[in-house]
Design a protein that fits this description.
With 410 residues, this protein is an alpha+beta fold. Strands 7-6-19-16-9-10 form a six-stranded antiparallel sheet. The chain has a six-stranded antiparallel sheet with strand order 15-14-11-8-17-18. A five-stranded mixed sheet has the order 1-3-2-4-5, with helices on both faces. Strand 9 and strand 10 form a beta hairpin. The longest helix is centred in the C-terminal third of the chain and has 17 residues. The protein starts with a strand and ends with a helix.
Length: 410
């Protein structure tokens, strides 16, 4: 491991923490000072410090901490560091504290972790309460036919979303943080080209759409208080799927209206929800929501760019995402944001059951279903709203009963 494992000089205690940190991030010395000031107050002995490297951003380091049988793992970095640590702690019950040192820090923001307060985040890591959250796991196929399994805590994107990540200016990102993604998005939209996909939820019926981007999310809030997915919860045992399918510039304006006005303002009141209904907002198809336990996506045409939690992941031709309910324990504040009580997720599947959902045969079955759909179905994104509504009504009696509560578009 880069830098090796180091310990502080604090007096011993009954418990031990490990800090997995990205050494290139600013604030490491402040982090060390904060940890040394807090660890003994909570009965912890010398802290184990493990640096990430370019070759290993945190997965191997998390396994090292796990082998050391520490009582707490603190992930200090951005969303990429947290994601890598989560992958290395798969199956462990060791709580994870978050000290945000990155740009977006979407995972920490959605959990109410202090983003610009290193001492506050450290105190929460040592003294907060444990909250079990969901983890997304994805099996993706590359253009050369090989497959990989990836972990996601925030959201993954195929298409424009991934192109936006790849177009982000790294120097601008250092200067203005997450606002650099806005700049990249504005530059990516004019050059974006919609593409066709075949997709299905929970092994139900396969549908076809023409999209600019498809997002698979574990949470709903973006920086700037943008409420992309109003109903998403990080521990509800479900993944959320968002299809962005505007046809033109006006369509993109309607996407912006949906996210910034309807989701953020109107839907918060009964009167606002009535206004959405009266103005046809619930029937428009520029932004389509759905949710379930698994989702299969097969690209009909050229491979598309793919990103996970804000990191470029190259091009893919197909993917299967599955939710792993409450698979990671995070140290958070006294209560989750805007929640009176934690949602109760379904019982988490066994390791064997989840592995079966992400094996090669499942992905191949999704691709076979997609081939049949391509040969027999129209593309919904290329139909008018009236034609889509008529088709939905016609298909309703024949729909798989399992899809009605889980796979229905919202």
């Amino acid at each position: 491991m880069g830098g090796g494992g180091q310990t502080t000089d604090a007096a011993g205690g009954d418990k031990r923490a490990a800090v997995i940190f990205n050494p290139v991030k600013q604030g490491i010395e402040q982090l060390r000072t904060a940890v040394e000031a807090v660890e003994r107050e909570h009965g912890f002995g010398p802290t184990l410090w493990i640096e990430t490297t370019e070759e290993d951003p945190g997965t191997g380091q998390a396994r090292e901490a796990r082998e050391a049988e520490v009582d707490l793992v603190i992930a200090a970095g951005g969303d990429g560091t947290v994601r890598a640590v989560a992958e290395g702690l798969e199956g462990a019950e060791t709580p994870v504290g978050l000290v945000p040192l990155g740009t977006g820090n979407l995972f920490a923001r959605n959990l109410g972790i202090p983003v610009n307060d290193i001492p506050g985040a450290v105190r929460l890591a040592f003294g907060g309460r444990d909250r079990a959250v969901d983890v997304l796991r994805a099996r993706v196929r590359r253009p050369d036919g090989t497959t990989e399994t990836e972990v996601s805590l925030v959201m993954s994107g195929i298409g424009l979303d991934a192109a936006m990540i790849s177009n982000t200016d790294p120097d601008l990102k250092k200067r203005v943080g997450w606002l650099a993604y806005v700049d990249a998005g504005l530059r990516a939209i004019p050059n974006s080209k919609p593409f066709r996909i075949a997709h299905r939820l929970d092994d139900g019926r396969t549908h076809r759409s023409r999209v600019s981007s498809i997002l698979i999310a574990n949470l709903g809030y973006l920086p700037g208080n943008i409420e992309l997915i109003p109903d998403a919860e990080v521990d509800d045992g479900r993944l959320d799927v968002v299809r962005l399918q505007p046809r033109n510039f006006w369509g993109w304006m309607l996407v912006w209206r949906k996210v910034m006005w309807e989701n953020r303002v109107l839907r918060r009141s009964a009167l606002g929800r009535q206004l959405i209904d009266l103005t046809g907002g619930n029937k428009r198809r520029e932004v389509v929501y759905s949710s379930g336990g698994t989702v299969d996506i097969v690209i009909d045409g050229e491979p598309q760019e793919f990103e996970i939690d804000g990191e470029e992941m190259g091009e893919i031709t197909a993917a299967r995402f599955a939710i792993d309910p409450k698979a990671l324990v995070i140290r958070v504040g006294s209560r989750p944001r805007e929640a009176a009580a934690e949602p109760v997720a379904d019982e988490a599947p066994s390791d064997g059951a989840l592995e079966a959902e992400l094996d090669e045969a499942e992905l191949e079955a999704a691709e076979e279903a997609a081939e049949e759909a391509v040969a027999t179905q129209p593309v919904t994104g290329e139909l008018s709203t009236a034609e889509i509504a008529a088709a939905d009504v016609a298909d309703a009696p024949a729909a798989d009963s399992r899809e009605e509560p889980d796979g229905a578009d919202r």
